């Protein structure tokens, strides 16, 4: 059985091990590769500040044997809408865990009064495409371009939207 909880400083070691993997960093816009010293501490602290200011929230997924496998977040973009993001450690890819952690945070967003979520993935990230489709996100007609810290370049990004119903 897996469980979900807010991200904590005690998660530093497994999150650092996950984010140091180029496969993880390359699928995000905000994780640099190589990972700088103290990046994870700052990242966790920043998310705790975001949560305390009611600007969003981040959870981590934990397996039955207490192993962290990934994270999902909602960052508020307007009063009742937000941006979904998630990553999963590669050893847990293709097991449905990205869908589970994203479903958990989407339920939290609905309970917090969000009515719409947006999300995106780089054009070459087929795994995230499949996750967003399983979560019933609709692909928007417009794509965007986002700078990736890991890739050190601007990357074509496919955009999605999910309307939440009370």
Model description:
A seven-stranded mixed sheet has the order 1-2-3-4-5-7-6, with helices on both faces. The protein has a single domain, classed as Aminopeptidase (3-Layer(aba) Sandwich). By secondary structure, the protein is α+β, with helices and mostly antiparallel strands. The mean pLDDT is 94. The chain contains five helices and seven strands. α1 crosses α3.
Strand arrangement across the biggest beta sheet: 1-2-3-4-5-7-6
CATH topology: Aminopeptidase
User: What is the percentage of strand-forming residues?
Assistant: 35-45%
User: Which overall shape is indicated by the principal axes computed on the Cα atoms?
Assistant: globular
- For the record, the CATH class is Alpha Beta
Task: Record the SSE blueprint.
Blueprint: E1 3-6, H1 12-19, H2 22-25, H3 39-52, E2 56-62, E3 68-78, E4 81-88, H4 97-111, E5 116-122, H5 126-134, E6 138-148, E7 153-163
Helix pairs in contact: 1-3
Distinctive features:
166 residues, alpha+beta, Aminopeptidase, 7 strands
Short recap of the structure:
Helices cover 30% and strands 36% of the residues. It is of the alpha+beta class and 166 residues long. The two termini are 27 Å apart.
